[in-house]
């Protein structure tokens, strides 16, 4: 098992490399890059896309050559645009051989040189190997510290939603399998199908309208994970305040996972109930409870545990952006969305790296849970 885990861990490296390569390539074709965003902010336009239809003109930028201006760059000194390109890592200052002193665009022996795409990607990967995610273009802070600051919010929502989905869905799925075809099975299946059909964001809006002061009751807060007076609360009050704030976001993130996991559990138990070893156990005079939890449970739960990564990742990825935005939670999903809008490339790549790493690690944990539930599973022998 140790060799298998080592191989899986080593496989994480090329997978993350592929994720970063694909997304780095995609960002090169997206209009309105970070330079144009910065220009729009300097000119007070707020959003670069307001000027996208304005066309382009030619200006002299730093090195003396005539280049196509960035959209919305009219009126800004060319030297400022060149310095932005250098600051954001798209260009560098090169000086003639034998030049002494600090490289500066104002010096006649120095000029701006654009860095090729492959070289920029190589620099980024080399920095990532040293856990250097760079600086945010617009937040004036290291990407690593920003990501670490936002991660607990997303992890909190993902874990609580997944745990609640499993705690509720597994007993419900088992009961539905035992009472298959009964009125209880029919009406719970109808409720589950309705819940599965409701998009997470629509359910979140419904919760806000009903319970967060939208139009009816204001039972739960609308934003944040803690109250403003958090620091002055006692330990018990802090715990109560925390659960008070996460109730609606967690419910909104759980709805789709709950439906899928319940039906998966029911179908898994139904398949096992019909097998010969179950009939043999019953013929030996074992009670129905002993048959169900002593024989069926371990085998039926394998496929349910196999679905743990997809449930957690589905809630963690899919719920992060929508739920965090609707409930004003400052997590990774909202951070990634704001970075994509602002074209803050270091933050975009940093969040993608973290999301990809978490997904791969959870996949490895799923295999370990397989072995914990059924020690007969040997991944090394299967691969051999």
Automatic annotation (TrEMBL):
The keyword Transmembrane applies. It comes from the Bacteria. One of its GO terms (biological process) is microcin transport. This is Microcin C transport system permease protein. Belongs to the binding-protein-dependent transport system permease family. The keyword Metal-binding does not apply. The chain crosses the membrane at residues 9-26, 153-174, 186-212, 242-265, 300-327, 347-373. It is a multi-pass membrane protein. CDD domains: TM_PBP2.
């Amino acid at each position: 098992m140790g060799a298998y885990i080592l191989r899986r861990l080593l496989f994480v490296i090329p997978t993350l490399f592929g994720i970063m390569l694909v997304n780095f390539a995609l960002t090169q074709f997206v209009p309105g890059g970070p330079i144009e965003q910065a220009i729009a902010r300097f000119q007070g336009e707020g959003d670069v896309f307001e000027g996208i239809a304005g066309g382009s003109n030619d200006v002299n930028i730093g090195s003396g050559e005539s280049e196509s201006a960035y959209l919305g760059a009219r009126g800004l000194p060319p030297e400022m645009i060149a310095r932005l390109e250098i600051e954001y890592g798209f260009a560098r200052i090169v000086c003639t051989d034998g030049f002494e002193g600090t490289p500066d665009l104002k010096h006649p022996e120095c000029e701006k040189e654009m860095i090729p795409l492959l070289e920029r990607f190589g620099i980024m990967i080399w920095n990532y190997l040293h856990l250097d995610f760079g600086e945010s273009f617009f937040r004036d802070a290291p990407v690593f510290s920003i990501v670490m600051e936002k991660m607990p919010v997303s992890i909190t929502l993902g874990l609580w939603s997944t745990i609640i989905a499993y705690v509720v869905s597994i007993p419900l799925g088992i009961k539905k399998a035992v009472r298959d075809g009964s009125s209880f099975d029919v009406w719970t299946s109808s409720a589950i199908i309705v819940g599965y059909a409701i998009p997470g964001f629509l359910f979140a809006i419904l919760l806000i309208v009903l319970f967060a002061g939208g139009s009816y009751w204001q039972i739960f807060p609308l934003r944040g994970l803690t109250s403003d007076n958090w620091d002055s609360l006692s330990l018990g009050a802090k715990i109560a305040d925390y659960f008070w704030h996460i109730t609606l976001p967690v419910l909104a993130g759980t709805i789709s996972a709950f439906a899928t996991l319940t039906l998966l559990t029911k179908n898994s138990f139904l398949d096992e109930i019909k097998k010969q070893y179950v009939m043999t156990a019953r013929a030996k005079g074992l009670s129905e409870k002993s048959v169900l939890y002593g024989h069926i449970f371990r085998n039926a739960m394998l496929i349910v545990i196999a679905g743990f990564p997809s449930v957690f990742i589905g809630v963690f990825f899919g719920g992060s952006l929508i739920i965090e935005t609707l409930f004003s939670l400052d997590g990774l999903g909202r951070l990634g969305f704001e970075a994509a809008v602002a074209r803050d490339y270091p933050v975009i790549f940093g969040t993608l790296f973290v999301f990809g790493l978490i997904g791969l690690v959870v996949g490895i944990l799923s295999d370990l849970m397989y072995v914990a539930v059924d020690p007969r599973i040997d991944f090394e022998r299967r691969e051999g």
